[in-house]
Amino acid sequence: MKRLFAFVSALALAAACTGTALAAEPIQVNEDISVSGDYDWTRFAGQNVTLNVYNWGEYISNGSDDSVDVVAAFEELTGIHVNYTTFDSNESMYAKLKSGAASYDVVIPSDYMVAKMIEEDMLLPLDYSNIPNFELIDEQYRNPDYDPENAYTVPYMLCTTGIIYNTTMVNEAPTGWADLWDEQYAGNILMFNNSRDAYAIAAFKEGKSINPATTQEVDEVMEQLKAQKPLVQAYVMDEIFDKMIGGEAAIGVYYSGDAITMIDDNPDLAWVFPEEGSVLSVDCMCIPSTSQNQEAAEMFINFMCEVDVGAANAEYIGYTTPSTAVWEQLDEELKYSEIAYPSEEVAAKEQVFTALSEEVNSELDVKWSEMKSYDEGGSGYLFLLLLLAMVLLACFNIWRKMRRKARNMY
After folding, report:
1. Which pTM value belongs to this model?
2. What is the spatial distance between Cα 12 and Cα 10, in angstroms, rounded to a whole number?
3. What is the spatial distance between Cα 181 and Cα 261, in angstroms, rounded to a whole number?
């Protein structure tokens, strides 16, 4: 497996880094987590510091199902209070920050949104002297295109998109994105409720780039999503958990780590990487430019990179860790999972999102909104028929009044 080989090849480096990080006696936070002893974890204790952390839903080990409560461990270790809230898409997170409706200290957007936020000066440059555990991040995930000098981000988790389906509700296992346009699944398909991921599915189906360069490309691909709409039961994000686990839909699309969680809860579910290819995303920890607690935020990021913490998170959410040191600590089932760590053949077909031009991004937003409105309001033909009926009714009422008035004159 391509990523697995990369992890193993980096093991010696990670081990050396780990040895350095744990040179001092480790600090035991609880029975599950110990952290580096040569880091001043208590320098904000007693100062009534509160960190506002904004993350994806179901994306951290939170103490449920016998997991480790990572946030509680951080609070116990540092004396910093964490106000932890969640979002369901990059777009909703971006809109919240852009509006100024709330202030956050740590956010975890995906790579393409990171690039957009950097361009718009929405992120603070990181002081890596406060994040020494960055050395535990594998070399292949440093200095990426979306943040070439790693000035603003630390990778948190990696994920890929794919198809999750109920084996008791489909006659033949799906093999590609094109199966989501199959009429046999009408009313039983769940699609992404965000423009980039939904667009990518249609682009893969049509053999086009998931990163459109022109508004014309956007328009052509969005026509495919419009054609698919009559078959779609719902456009969802976190709602997919209840729907797929509860057997309310036959087939859906989502992220690899969440697929592992859903399959654990419902063994009738299965996962496939579509033959056309998948999107590989890197979700990153970064600090919004409005943060008033940068150093404490960097402490939180450093804590999240601790090996025990990273392992607790990866074990609970099922996503791919960017750290070989963390990977080494995972249980065997997850460590060799073909969903979390796909084969070389699957990895070779992965594509990554890049930031779009303002013109193209605006066109995508407009076309996505039009498509969703069209879907919610019914077909355009039905709308025209209703409009025509209203006009005819108005004309009839006018004619009737005129006829009554004519009769009264006589």
Report:
1. 0.84
2. 6
3. 26
